[in-house]
């Protein structure tokens, strides 16, 4: 067994253990940290398989953005997940059976894709480019239209999220910064002289007796 194979088994074992702890950890923050560990382990496995681009994207997108945001949200909300996990082990046999059925169905459908085929030989120029550059050439040459469609769908999703966030709500109070900047002291503060309502008592003649 060489070093690459040994590292593959080590990272795979860590990935399986972290994935198991994600669904069995009682603390939500701990489950999120185990998920981050699972993503890092999967990225290491992809690096061993010479898929550098996928490994970097997994670390940057999922670990660097999505999981960090999810971790901050969980820590800020302080979700009490103990009551949601009551009766968890009672449903484990049914969940395991459903998982086995799904795995068998996927294996049956994708069995042809699992069969090893002879990869096309690459010339010296293609080998010198690297996987990332070859993947970019493949995407922007043969899959340009699907890539543009995916970009348009993501743009529509971003616009929809912004539109939902900026909608006017009747129960929310907000301040327009432009109005605040144009405010002058004379518009907010005005001194008004008001005559007294009760007259002051008149002084007695001759002074006090």
Please, could you describe this protein's structure?
- The structure is a single chain.
- By secondary structure, the protein is mainly alpha-helical.
- Among the domains are: 1-84, Up-down Bundle (Four Helix Bundle (Hemerythrin (Met), subunit A)), CATH 1.20.120.1200; 129-166.
- It has helices spanning 3-24, 28-48, 52-77, 92-109, 111-114, 124-129, 131-142, 144-165, 177-181, 185-188.
Question: Briefly, what is this?
Answer:
The chain has helices spanning 3-24, 28-48, 52-77, 92-109, 111-114, 124-129, 131-142, 144-165, 177-181, 185-188. The protein is mainly α.
Q: What's the N-to-C terminus distance?
A: 119 Å
- Uncertain segments are none
Number of helices: 10
The 3D shape can be described as elongated
Quote the beta fraction: under 5%
Q: Describe the biggest sheet?
A: none
Average pLDDT level: 78
For CATH, the homologous superfamily of the domain at 1-84 is named as: NADH-ubiquinone/plastoquinone oxidoreductase chain 6, subunit NuoJ
The CATH topology of the domain at 1-84 is what? Four Helix Bundle (Hemerythrin (Met), subunit A)
Known CATH architecture of the domain at 1-84: Up-down Bundle
The H/E string reads HHHHHHHHHH
Helix content: 55-70%
Q: What integer value in Å does the Rg equal? A: 33 Å
Total beta strands: 0
Structural class: mainly alpha
CATH class of the domain at 1-84: Mainly Alpha
